[in-house]
Amino acid sequence: MAIPKKMTAAVLYGFEDVRVVERDVPLPGPEEALIKIESCAICGGDIKIISRGMPKQPPFGEFIIGHEYAGIVAAIGETVTEFKIGDRVTVEVHKGCGRCKNCLAGKYTACLNFGDTSKGHRANGFTTNGGFAEYAVNHVNTLSRIPDSISFDEATIITNAGTPLYGIDRAGGYIAGDSVVVIGPGAIGLMAVQCSRALGAKQVILTGTRKERLELGRKLGATDTVNVKEENAVARVKELTGGYGADLMLVAAGGEKTLQQALEMCCRGGNITLLAHFDDPVTVDIGLAVRHGINIYTVRGVIPMLTLGIPGDPITAILLGALMLQGLVPGPLLFQNSPDFVYSLFWAFFFANILNLILTFSTIKIWVRILKVPKRILLPIILALCVVGSFALRGNFFDTWVMLFFGVLSYFMKKYGFPVVPMLLAIILGPNLEEHLRMSLVISQGDPMVFITKPISLILFFLQWFHLWDRLSVRSSRPD
Ligand SMILES: [Zn+2]
Ligand SMILES: [Zn+2]
Prior knowledge:
Blueprint: E1 6-14, E2 17-24, E3 32-41, H1 44-52, E4 63-64, E5 68-76, E6 88-91, E7 94-95, H2 101-104, E8 122-123, E9 135-139, E10 143-145, H3 152-155, H4 158-170, E11 179-183, H5 187-198, E12 203-208, H6 211-219, E13 224-227, H7 233-240, E14 246-251, H8 258-265, E15 266-274, H9 286-292, E16 295-298, H10 302-307, H11 314-325, H12 333-337, H13 339-369, H14 375-394, H15 397-415, H16 421-443, H17 450-453, H18 455-477
Parallel strand pairs: 11-12, 11-14, 12-13, 14-15, 15-16
Antiparallel strand pairs: 1-2, 1-4, 3-5, 3-9, 5-6, 6-10, 7-8
Helix pairs in contact: 4-5, 7-8, 14-15
Bound molecules: zinc ion (2 copies).
């Protein structure tokens, strides 16, 4: 199979700004395969990425979106023996890091190194480039061979069947002879109906509001459908299940009432699995789950992880721990359940800042006096604080050496009349500048002329040169 050097790809350049542009065809590394993409589905997740983004996505101007695709293996990297060129394959999104606690336990969709490519995690179409392109590179762990009887278009949504299948698995897996209720006849819900039937469920009740969707559900295997607009869905499910409620609830609609409905439709000792993303907080009678011994499971999701009050760093973790000790549950519900606390927290922040201002102004004279301390006493103290400070920030000795190096450098700079402040600014602003320079070059496809051909950069460019020229001429005309 001849592989071209260039391909077209749909690249995200900003929110609501997808452009079809030319890109290099990627090369497969060890354990990877190059896929010639035949079909790529558009997922609700893609719309979210295009309109408001997802955590840890690649920078604008680089990010090729799309995560539900199928195609043909066009090239394989070193050590790949599982697939050969010409195999028809479909992909799944997650390639776990393979080294974190969750990956080692097989729960790679909940990888603790999510988004960290240096640790080996990839989520094509989310944190790494995806399938709205002619070619994409995938780790072999994310590939599944498909038979000729399944078309590429059909194969793109196999990964979605994984969501309800995994959801059923989470809730114990064995559903033969059971009654299952699927709430929400969307793509995932309809897939859940088919999976439940295929796994031997005796009864699959599909609930929803859209008539055509419910009819489609019936064609796909639902034994009963309930239109929640027309009848009392809870009562109907109870009736259909001999008064007991269903054994398994698959919630494929993240609405305001769906979880409460699920709790009421579920039989004692039954299971609920949440397949849907809930964008807003919901209120439910969780006591019902406790009283009836109902287990609630989730399949992983990117958005819920962030909104459920899961700490991202040690300081947040300590803060969350402190809140929990006070009986306050962190997360979006905090605002709803403890508004008094949230208000007092904000007022406390406000007054703390005012207090800070008053303290600073009233004590500034005392602090200035410190400068009167003889240098031989003051400087060693400052040096000690600098060493401790630079080390404490990241617990890294290298940082301390960097601090010492620049200390010595500034000493000589001062001694020979070079200003130190520009260097400090460069250190602080440098990474920012570098990132934006890289982004600009990516957007201009590597053409440095962009810095003088675009009006804004041209003006900035001239301002800098004017300033430099002005300085230089002042210096040369200054009498020594
Ligand atoms: Zn998707
Ligand atoms: Zn992992």
